[in-house]
């Protein structure tokens, strides 16, 4: 028999301790417990729990328990928190307002942070277009000089070709 603790059937130990196994399965388990100290300790612990539960006497409930319980429920529901809790806390599953309230808080914090005016550094962008404008003028002047030089070279080129012939 494989050890129930390490296999997929640990419920066998509980069933054995409760006396729910059939005779042949119970005999196999007794043979296994004789050689496996872990299973023996598990069965002994479970047997101790079952015995303690069998010996335990429940405290009797008073006759006015239900009346006091309903009175407390009514008292809590009549308070402001009791009415709010009814709307905020889901009863028996479903949608609750807790996630919606959390998302609303996050949204308020995000919007508040984005609407705050962040102190800005001095605006240096006004100097950049002036500098760029000066650079563009110099580049344009150089380009015109280059075009004039190419034009003068082109104008001289036909003269020199005619002289070479």
Q: Layout of helices and strands, plus pairs?
A:
Layout: H1 11-18, H2 23-35, H3 37-55, H4 65-78, H5 80-88, H6 97-115, H7 127-164
Helix pairs in contact: 1-3, 2-3
Notable traits:
single chain; 165 residues; mainly alpha; 7 helices; 73% helix; elongated
Describe this structure in words.
- It is a single chain.
- With 165 residues, this protein is mostly helical.
- Among the domains are: 11-55, no CATH class; 65-114, no CATH class.
- Helix content is 73%, strand content 0%.
- The protein is elongated and about 125 Å long.
- What is the CA-atom radius of gyration, in angstroms? 46 Å
- Strand content range: under 5%
Tell the overall outline. elongated
Number of helices: 7
Q: Describe the oligomeric state of these chains in a short phrase.
A: single chain
Main beta-sheet strand count, sense and barrel state? none
How many strand segments? 0
Percentage of residues assigned to helices: over 70%
Mean residue pLDDT: 77
Q: Compute the separation of the termini in Å.
A: 115 Å
Task: List the secondary-structure elements in sequence, H or E.
Answer: HHHHHHH
Structural class: mainly alpha
Low-confidence stretches: none
């Amino acid at each position: 028999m494989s050890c129930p603790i390490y296999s997929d059937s640990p419920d066998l130990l509980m069933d054995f301790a409760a006396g729910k196994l059939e005779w042949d399965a119970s005999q196999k388990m007794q043979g296994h417990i004789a050689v496996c100290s872990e299973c023996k300790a598990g069965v002994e612990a479970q047997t101790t729990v079952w015995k303690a539960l069998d010996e335990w006497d429940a405290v009797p409930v008073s006759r006015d328990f239900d009346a006091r319980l309903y009175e407390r429920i009514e008292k809590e529901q009549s308070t402001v928190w009791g009415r709010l809790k009814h709307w905020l806390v889901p009863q028996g599953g479903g949608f609750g307002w807790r996630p919606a309230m959390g998302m609303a808080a996050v949204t308020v914090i995000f919007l508040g942070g984005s609407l705050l005016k962040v102190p800005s550094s001095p605006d240096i962008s006004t100097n950049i277009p002036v500098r760029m404008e000066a650079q563009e003028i110099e580049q344009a002047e150089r380009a015109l000089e280059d075009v004039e030089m190419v034009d003068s070279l082109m104008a001289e080129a036909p003269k020199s070709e005619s002289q070479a012939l």
